[in-house]
Amino acid sequence: MTDAAAAPDSRTCPFRIPALTSGKAIAAGGSNTPMSQFEIISNTQEPDLSTAMKVVYQWNYGSEVEELRRLYVKALETQWIAERDLNWERPIDHIALAATPLGIGFPVEQTSYWRSLSAETVWELKKRMASFRLSNFLHGEQGALMVAAQLVNAVPHTDAKFYAATQTMDEARHVEVFARYIQKLDMVRPIAPNLKGLLDTTLETGDWTKKLVGMQIVVEGLALYSFREMRNLTEEPLLKEILTYVGRDEARHHAYGVQYVERCVPCLSAAEREELEDFAFDAAIAIIGGRNQAGFMAALMQSWAEAGIDTAELLACAQRERDQLTRTPRTGRRRGPVSGFVLPTLRRCGLLSQRVAGRFHEVLQENLGSQVVGDSVEEFMRWIPDLPEDTAAWLLGELE
């Protein structure tokens, strides 16, 4: 079981989890709207989200954070153009996509229920699974686009503003490519409620350090881990190429968060650091599973139920056959995006004190068990892996 399928703790969490959205199709793109039909307000928009943010002018135009200036230059040198650099005339390889493992942390495909399904039903479920994951990548990229634009205004250092500007461009391109691929495959699925809650809270906060942690550490950490997993699992050529391009950008975005946050944390008071740690904890718990059955797994099960699957029986079958299916444990695999990537990042940034580590251990132990996170906080801390030395190489499967 991975973090994404686990349930959060029952304590009060400031991240609002909106009601699960219906499975209606969402526009992924299309022909240009004629001038006579152009509208300022459309039915695909969501009502305004009120945000609080201070704008910081910086009159020192020289470089103050050299590692961020180097990252900015690297971002400029590695820009790519989706229309030019990807072959959109190539059709999606349905056989390769159907052969892609689900990657949900438990071998559902090996259950007797799944094996009893027709080939047509299996393809429909695989297609829905791919469009569900890619749709949440797409929605997350739109959130990242808006937060990155906020960071240009809010961060106090010129180098950080410059890099946030390049990230804003990157995120626009990511929205473009995911929307275009989904349009070729299926339809855009609604955003998972726990992801929407995290994006809303990150956009709403007036504290730029919380925006950095919420987006660059938690959301980008989740994205980087998920892109790597899907890229390594799929052999669908166009999707693999898209995830390679996007993943390289995300590795830079994550590096921006790490390099900037670890510079800022030592400047905070003890109270400010604790508040930022707690914000990171709440953000990670929002991603882990979704309060009131509103997590990623529940949203996926709803999509499968709409395809005629008895999801209650599927999960019951998986539970009955769990011991047989997990008799041979898998090794060499990180333990989901939170415990396998977000927590190592928080530790690197100085935001994983013994106090907040105890809170993480309590939640993860309840959901994953002591065999995954250890019997004590000390053991838990020892089991947290180090961040890859080169996240881009790790993304491409060149590093474990």
Question: Can I get a quick summary?
Answer:
The chain is 61% helix and 0% strand. The chain has 400 residues and is an all-alpha fold.
Question: What do you see in this structure?
Answer:
It is a single chain. The protein is mostly helical and 400 residues long. It has one domain: Ribonucleotide Reductase, subunit A (Orthogonal Bundle), CATH 1.10.620.20. Helix content is 61%, strand content 0%. It is built from 18 helices and no strands. The chain has helices spanning 66-77, 82-85, 94-98, 112-115, 119-154, 158-185, 193-204, 208-233, 237-264, 270-288, 296-306, 311-320, 322-325, 336-348, 354-368, 370-373, 377-383, 391-395. α6 (158-185) packs antiparallel against α9. It is globular. The chain starts with 65 loop residues before the first helix and ends in a 5-residue tail after the last helix. Mean pLDDT is 86; it is low at 1-23, 290-294 and 329-334.
Q: What are its keywords?
A:
disordered N terminus, mainly alpha, Ribonucleotide Reductase, subunit A, globular, 400 residues
